Amino acid sequence: MGSGKSCTGKLLAETLQYNFVDLDEQIEKAEGKSIRLVFMENGEDYFRKKEASILRLVQDKSPIVLATGGGTPCFFDNITFLLENFTCFYLNPDTDLLTNRLIKETAVRPVLDNATGYKEILQRIRELQTERGHVYEQADFKISFDETSQHHLHKLILDKL
Are the C-beta atoms of 103 and 149 separated by less than 8 Å? Predict the structure, then answer.
């Protein structure tokens, strides 16, 4: 969440001449409403099942650069599916950088719903990193960074490919 997957993914897809697929956008299209509304109206369990289902459908659009939601790899057997079908990158921004990005987006990030202010958002990010980190660490490549430039992140990914 907020690591730059979508922005960097678009740039990477353009460079590689692949299609770009944002999993959250695919879910919103299928549901006819925002991710936030899906969470609010149907709950996280429903959302995660829909997410897993659509994840398996987008593979047919290969070759693609796929941006998943931050929780995607952590539910069902999604991490196994991703590792078997894609080259996976764990984008790991510095927590201060991530907090500064997300402080403006709490209204559209369901997992940050109750967080207000820098300290609460930072605490929630750290909780998510603790809960999800063991899954993220399974990615083929981990890229830690503290710069905000999408072009810099794009270059770091291309260097790994």
Answer: no
Question: Which DSSP letter does residue 79 get?
Answer: H
What residue ranges do the domains of the chain occupy? 5-149
Phi, psi angles (nearest 5°) of residue 138: -80, -10
Per residue in 42-56, pLDDT (tens digit) is 999 999 999 999 999
Question: Which class is domain 5-149?
Answer: alpha beta
Torsion of the alpha carbons at 122, 123, 126 and 128, rounded to the nearest 10: -110
H helix or E strand, kind and range, residue 142: strand 141-145
pTM: 0.88
- Helix 95-102 / helix 117-136 crossing angle, nearest 10 deg: 120
CA dist 136 and 70 (Å) reads: 9
Give per-residue burial for 99-132: e unless 16+ CB within 10 Å, then b.
bbbbbeebeebbbbeebeeeeebbebbeebeeeb
Confidence of residue 118 (pLDDT cuts 50, 70, 90): confident
- What pLDDT digit, counting tens, does each position of 107-116 carry? 677 777 777 8
